[in-house]
Amino acid sequence: MIPETLFAVLIRVWEYLTFWWYSPPALSNMRLKGPARDGDANALMIQFFTWEAEHPQMSWWKHFETEVPNLAEMGVTQVWLPPPNKAMRKQGQGYDAYDLWDLGEFFQKDTIATRWGTKEELVRAIAAANAHGIDVLVDAVLNHKLGGDRLEKFNATPVDPNDRLRDIGPTREIE
C-alpha cells in the first residue's frame, strides 16, 4: 500500500504532467505576427501606459490609435495595453476591477467609458495596430475583484494548508 503523503505527491505530479501535456505555454501558441515569428530576432514590445497616463484632448484608446503609425515606423511589433475593463473608480486604471466584461460599453459607475475610453475606441485602435502589423496584448488581471458594490456569499470548504486536496472541515457559506 502507498503511504498517503506519497500518494498525494504522485497525484500532484500526475496533475502537473497532464496540465503541461495538454496546456503548452500560452505565449508560444499566440500566433504573433511580429518579426520574432517571421524569422527576425528583433521583436520590440512597448508598454503603452503608465499609472498616471491620460491624454488631455482624447481618450487613451484614440491616442493609442493615432500613435500606431509612429510605433510601427519605430519597429514596434507588440504593444502592451492597460486593463481595458470598468474599474471601481472613474479614473481607476482597471486593476481595481468592477466589471471585467465591461470594456466601456455599459453605463456603470456613472460612466460608459472606462478611464481609457470606450469599447468601440478600443476595437478601432486594435484594428489599426493589427493593420500595421502590431500585435496587442492587454493586461487582463482576472483575479482582481476589489471593485464590487457589495459583499458576495459563496460556499467554501476548509482544506489542509499542506495538502489542498484534503478537506479538513464541512463546506460552509462565507462572504
Global outline: flat
Number of helices: 3
The strand count comes to 9
The CATH architecture name reads 2-Layer Sandwich
Straight-line N-to-C gap: 41 Å
Task: Give the class-level CATH name.
Answer: Alpha Beta
Mean pLDDT: 83
CATH overall fold name: Transcription Regulator spoIIAA
Find the structural class using helix and strand composition: alpha/beta
Order of helices and strands: HEHEEEHEEEEE
Beta-strand content bin? 15-25%
Radius of gyration, CA atoms, in whole angstroms: 22 Å
Main sheet makeup:
3 strands, parallel
Task: Flag low-confidence runs.
Answer: none
| Helix content range | 25-40%
Protein name: Glucose transporter rco-3
Keywords: Sugar transport, Transport
InterPro entries: GH, GH13_cat_dom
Family: Belongs to the glycosyl hydrolase 13 family.
Detailed description of the structure:
With about 180 residues, the chain is α/β, with parallel strands linked by helices. The chain has a single domain (about 35-175), classed as Transcription Regulator spoIIAA. Helices cover about 25% and strands about 15% of the residues. It has helices spanning about 5-20, 60-75, 120-130; strands at about 45, 80, 85, 95-100, 135-140, 155, 160, 165, 170-175. The chain has a three-stranded parallel beta sheet, with helices on one face. It has a two-stranded antiparallel ribbon with strand order 3-4. A hairpin with a 2-residue loop joins strand 7 and strand 8. The longest helix is centred in the N-terminal third of the chain and has 19 residues, at about 5-20. It is flat. The mean pLDDT is about 85. InterPro entries: GH, GH13_cat_dom. Belongs to the glycosyl hydrolase 13 family. This is Glucose transporter rco-3. Keywords: Sugar transport, Transport.
